[in-house]
Prior knowledge:
Elements: H1 3-15, E1 23-25, H2 31-40, E2 45-46, H3 49-55, H4 66-79, E3 84-87, H5 96-109, E4 113-116, H6 130-147, E5 152-156, H7 170-184, E6 188-191, H8 197-206, E7 211-214, H9 222-228, E8 232-234, H10 238-257, H11 270-278
Parallel strand pairs: 1-8, 2-3, 3-4, 4-5, 5-6, 6-7, 7-8
Helix pairs in contact: 2-4, 4-5, 5-6, 6-7
Amino acid sequence: xxxxxxxxxxxxxxxxxxxxxxxxxxxxxxxxxxxxxxxxxxxxxxxxxxxxxxxxxxxxxxxxxxxxxxxxxxxxxxxxxxxxxxxxxxxxxxxxxxxxxxxxxxxxxxxxxxxxxxxxxxxxxxxxxxxxxxxxxxxxxxxxxxxxxxxxxxxxxxxxxxxxxxxxxxxxxxxxxxxxxxxxxxxxxxxxxxxxxxxxxxxxxxxxxxxxxxxxxxxxxxxxxxxxxxxxxxxxxxxxxxxxxxxxxxxxxxxxxxxxxxxxxxxxxxxxxxxxxxxxxx
Length: 282
């Protein structure tokens, strides 16, 4: 593990949240997608936990093991030059020891940032209490410092996405959580599931740190989000699901019509793909 190199990448990733321009992340789920995004000029690669899990035959929601998730994250990190931030769900375990083990394994895989959710299952009964989530964030921060990699922690709350609790109190509860996460050591604050422009604008002003919004159809575009003060926008599993949608269209045409007109519509040329996959990381 190249501690000094990873520390430099971590600082590089952290600065991208404070550069005056919004950080755009098109989440990758394998080496090929990561290299496509890197060659397009993305300054960092984020992974999608749902995308990686699905590619290995799992549903989303920590059903995949830490080891299997980080095997793919490590392959991506070794294949690109830019910093990699990994979606590690709720950290793969409920204890402080679990958080420490996850951070160590993540660093060994080569990632320099991570997402941490505050739910451990598929309903609001799994919402981690605030005090425990703060302890997890503090443990993650300590573990990164002990390793010597000042990892970039993107702390997420699912109050809007799941959703959790009464609608009329979601904004206040979200702000309370995000401010506490920031104070505990989070570098960025992630609120998936909110697409109302007025709410996003209020959140950007109310939270004490860089705000990450999940790109959502019908929500504000990147320029609008940047104008609101949002620091980071990510695609989640959206690009992966879009790719699967294209695969479904190709399969449907072939099965029902016996033709394959849409198959190569927008496809990466074979020669370009081979060049990307043959490239050696320096």
